[in-house]
Amino acid sequence: MKKVLIVGAGLAGSVLARSLAEKGIASRVIDQRDHVAGMCHSSRDEETGVMVHRFGPHIFHTSNERVWEFVNRFDTFCPWVNRVKATNSRGVFSMPINLHTINQLFGKQMNPAEALAYIQTLQDATITDPQNAEEQLLRFVGRDIYETFFKGYTTKQWGVSPRELSANIVKRIPIRFNYDDNYYFSKYQGFPMAGYTELVRRFLDHDLIDLQTGTAYDKAMDAEHEHTFYSGPLDEYFGYSEGDLSYRTVDFTYTRGEGDLQGNGCMNYTDGDVPYTRAHEHKYFSPWETHEKSILLHEFSREAGRQDNRFYPKRMPADMLILDRYMPLVEQTERTSFIGRLGCYRYLDMHDVIRISLEYADHWADWKQGKEPVLNKMAVSPLN
User: What digits encode the pLDDT tens for the residues 32-79?
Assistant: First the structure.
């Protein structure tokens, strides 16, 4: 029996490979990079000794028991709460917006009921059906909060005005009328103590998995394998025949020094005239370690080209039209599936990628055994 081919040794490919291996299905996993773990790759900084998330901070969080049980089979996760701060011309604030943020911003000492009533006076009630991100925010938080925390940051992050972004992008941004500054609502949060790259190596450490890094994908490889699971960019797979889907990428600058450099793991910079979006002090992501020196990474967001690392699918209206043209090509492929953030052109958090890959392994194995009449060509639909 031929092995299956898995293109990409990031989270999507590695979890899929491990799940299939535990079902008795052998795979060959390739990655054009010289390391595993894809965009959650971590390695030690030689000068400071700090473990650095090379493509930005990856803070694991989930409420899904299957996902949590899966990752904990391979490493111990140290609990960690993400307490984001935001710096702008008006001060340093707690994020997401909570009772402390509101009282500090407006110089008040309100209780939860008073703060809720106050925010309601700021809301733009003339907007009854928000058509874009700006209208959504003006409707629910008012102009002052919008311009202080969201307008500049969102424009830098996405490269367009919030007026050009879907209202759905900001519908889940919470305002908390208590002092809870935990960025996530997830039941579990933390970091793998060996680092993400080692975690993924352990996913791939199985007799039925043949791992080859530094190996680029060629469609001629398909003939050598029973099935191909592709986690690269969807438009690249089809030679950009229907157009380029748009992404944002991120560039990083490194600053090293003694002691603490910003006093917190994650700092957002929300003013539009500050060129970077965020800064991360990475030793905070390994709280079980002690380091005299520190390293700070600043993020600069820009439009991604074909040769760039693609961080965030933009999914603008023009992208969705292009995506519609690719979908028939997806359905016409033989013995090929599309997985992961790039293969499915969806923004997916780590826990989403792991859950979807576990579920897709179940789906493909059931289809292979005749238990499923139809194979979904994509691990998750990009259209919803």
Answer: 999 999 999 999 999 999 999 999 999 999 999 999 999 999 999 999
What is residue 1's predicted lDDT score, i.e. its pLDDT? 73
273 carries an active-site annotation: no
Task: Output the CA angle 366-39-265, nearest 5 degrees.
Answer: 120
**Token pair of 203, please?**
């996913």
Whether 349 is a known active-site residue: answer: yes
| DSSP alpha helix (H) spans, 123-263 | 133-140, 142-145, 151-158, 196-203, 234-237
Number of helices (H) and strands (E), helices first, in the chain? 12, 17
248 catalytic per annotation? yes
Q: What share of the chain is helix, strand, coil (3-state, %, to 5)?
A: 35, 20, 45
Catalytic member of 31, 134, 242, 299: 299
pTM for the model stands at 0.96
Instruction: Report whether the peptide linkage leading into residue 174 is cis, meaning its omega lies within 30 degrees of zero.
Output: no
**In 3-state terms, what secondary structure has residue 257?**
strand
* Pairing outcome for strands 266-269 and 84-88: parallel
310 catalytically annotated: no
Over the stretch 278-292, which tens digit does the pLDDT of each residue have?
A: 999 999 999 999 999
DSSP 280: E
Q: Given 18, 176, 201, 355, which residue is catalytic?
A: 176
174, pLDDT greater than 80: no
Active site residue 163: no
Catalytic site includes residue 372 = no
Pair 274, 89: CB distance under 8 Å = no
Q: Pick the catalytic residue: 347, 359, 366, 372?
A: 347
Catalytic annotation present for 198: no
Catalytic residue (choose from 18, 201, 248, 355):
248
Catalytic pick from 69, 172, 292, 331? 172
The active-site residue out of 244, 349, 359, 366 is 349
What's 149's DSSP letter?
I
Single out the catalytic residue among 278, 310, 346, 355. 278
Give the 3-state secondary structure of 72-111. HCCCCEEECCCCEEEEECCEEEEECCCHHHHHHHHCCCCC
Of the candidates 146, 142, 143, 135, the residue with the CA atom closest to the CA atom of residue 168: 135
